[in-house]
Design goal:
By secondary structure, this protein is mainly alpha-helical. It has one domain. The chain has six helices and no strands. The chain has helices at 2-22, 25-42, 49-71, 86-118, 126-135, 155-183. The longest helix is centred in the middle third of the chain and has 33 residues, at 86-118. It is globular and about 60 Å long. The protein starts with a helix and ends in a 5-residue tail after the last helix.
Length: 188
């Protein structure tokens, strides 16, 4: 039980810090969109603003998601759930978080595969590709770029997605541990 409490404390603290920093990402997004508006009105329109706004929004959403889950501010159907006892909520959350963990594992596999592809890997084993990059057995190939006029490399935003999915997975495991402690009747 001490291990679970330590895990919860560390993961919650890490995701709280990251989430609090990412809350200010909305101001970065507003700045990019403001510059887009000003440049279109008074100067030559900037090519990078639309895609940069999309990239900032992805980071804001994906890296802020674990903090949102931690706070319980995610969307949930509260027709029955709000009237349940803490024990019944813990059982229901324990059951449903398993589906979320499975879904996040699928998303993580897709993000790793997509990131490997964006780094020029054409094979079917993306995890071994990244292992090969670390050991020097693999090389980065022709890197994927956006098809827009700005043509940024896509691997940085895909790495952000991997980090976000890992953080969300860790937070889901923290929520699972909280439910287990609640069901055992122990304080969190």
């Amino acid at each position: 039980m001490r291990f679970l409490r330590g895990y919860i404390r560390r993961i919650d603290a890490m995701n709280r810090r990251i989430g609090r920093v990412m809350m200010y990402g909305i101001f970065v997004l507003m700045g990019v969109l403001l510059w887009s508006t000003v440049s279109k009105a008074f100067f030559v329109p900037s090519l990078w603003t639309l895609e940069m706004a999309q990239f900032v929004m992805v980071g804001y959403y994906i890296l802020g998601g674990p903090y949102s889950l931690q706070l319980g501010s995610n969307v949930r159907m509260d027709l029955l759930y709000g009237d349940w006892s803490l024990r019944r909520k813990a059982w229901f959350d324990l059951f449903t978080v398993c589906f979320l963990i499975f879904y996040l594992c699928v998303l993580l596999y897709g993000a790793v595969s997509s990131t490997a592809y964006s780094l020029g890997y054409w094979g079917t084993e993306p995890f071994s590709f990244f292992g090969g990059l670390v050991t020097g057995a693999e090389e980065i190939g022709h890197m994927e770029q956006s098809s827009s006029a700005w043509r940024p490399y896509l691997w940085p935003i895909k790495v952000v997605m991997i980090v976000g999915f890992v953080l969300m997975l860790l937070q889901c495991l923290s929520e699972l541990a909280k439910d287990v402690l609640r069901l055992k009747g122990e304080a969190i």
